[in-house]
Amino acid sequence: MKYTRTSDRTFEWWRYALCYVEAAEMLLRGASAADPASGLAPLSLPATYCLRHSIELLLKFLALALNKPLKYSHDAKSLLSAIKEPLQAIDRAELERVASLVECKPELIGSFLETSSEKIEKLANKYHEYLFLDAGRVQDPKNEIFRYPTTLSSGGNLDIDRFTESFSIDETLSEAEDLRMFLFSLLVLFGKTSSGKTLTESLE
Description:
By secondary structure, this protein is mostly helical. 64% of the residues lie in helices and 0% in strands.
């Protein structure tokens, strides 16, 4: 796996994903510090949207980094299916190269990728299908529910009061932190400059 500053703007997909997940974290920390009497709705909605959008951007970034065709869709399941197998099938030589950079065994890198991909898959499924809404299966093909009070699709609209009552700042913040750490890990372990140098090599 590799990615560079190429004409397809692969690296910019990574940067966009990072921007949105960091925005989610800032909103969640703001919600945590806010006066409980003010309610969570003003910050929980944009925070959830930012986290969901960051996941989508990450999946599209991984598709480009793994040389897979980019699907211009909000369908996380479809995006996941395109990257899951190649992400877990990174060859031994690449694992050994990465392991040498951080002075650990290749098996640890492989285990990290496997564990991380499982976490991302769970997050993608949770936010794609809105499993946290406790409202049955929700269809939102245009990613509208957390952006507009009414949607063009038949998936229904968001009950803000019901959502904020069950919203967990701590859980959502932990998910955002996991996503951000995975993004930075990808940059450190696999990132390359346009000349083909790894991040550590470019710093020498």
